Amino acid sequence: MKLYRKGEKGEAVCEECAKLVSTTFDYRDVPFEDGLGTVKGILAAVCDDCDRVVATPPQSTPAIRRAREVATRPVEISVPAPYVEILDLALYRINARATAEHRKVLLTYFANKVAGDPDPKAVVQGLVTRSKAFSASLGRVPRRRLSFKVTPRSHALISSLADAASASRTDLLSGLIMQIENDLVRPDKPKGMAEVEAAMAAAYA
Ligand SMILES: [Zn+2]
Asked: 91 and 60 in one domain?
């Protein structure tokens, strides 16, 4: 694999100039493709005509990946208060010192678990049905806001699970909370606690 160096010349198609251009490698701050965030100071091929970054060499890929992992995406939903109570009670059973920050860890852990099922769509649809029945049984209760920031990878996972089952993100996360109730809150002895604890510990190591 070739290691490129600052000042080296190359050729690439520049979208801005709409043609093949000569490029010079230089260290630049490069925005992510979706524009949400930047990776700072990586080697990139810069268009000699318009001075824009047109490509990044393989040696910059690990730095881009790491920066993407750190970048966060907001998730914000409003649910009947009992959903938040279930989530917090499950966290309390895992670790009495768990904070609101841990909510997303538990939710993304369960999202990954569902994604690992042979038929995630059916699982999500089942959970959404359960959560709709649960919501209908609650009567008039206050609504609470659940808001947190997740990595782009978790964000994409949540969106793809919801899309696969034609559910909204709110429905998906409400459904996951139903599963959390089933596994961690309702049983006298919570199910799969060792794995949950390990996931939580890893997330905050
Ligand atoms: Zn150009």
From this structure: no
Q: Which amino acid is located at 112 in the chain?
A: N
Tell me the pLDDT tens digit for each residue of 1-45.
889 999 999 999 999 999 999 999 999 999 877 666 789 999 999
Predicted TM-score of the model (pTM) = 0.71
The domain in which residue 37 lies consists of 9-70
Tell me, in angstroms, the distance from the centre of ligand 1 to residue 70's CA. Answer: 29
Rounded CA-CA distance 141/66 in Å is: 42
Structure tokens at 80: 């009947």
Contact 40, 28 (CB under 8 A): no
> Ligand 1 mean position to 49 CA, how many Å?
5
C-alpha 14 to ligand 1 mean position (Å):
5
Q: How far is the CA of 59 from the centre of ligand 1 (A)?
A: 22
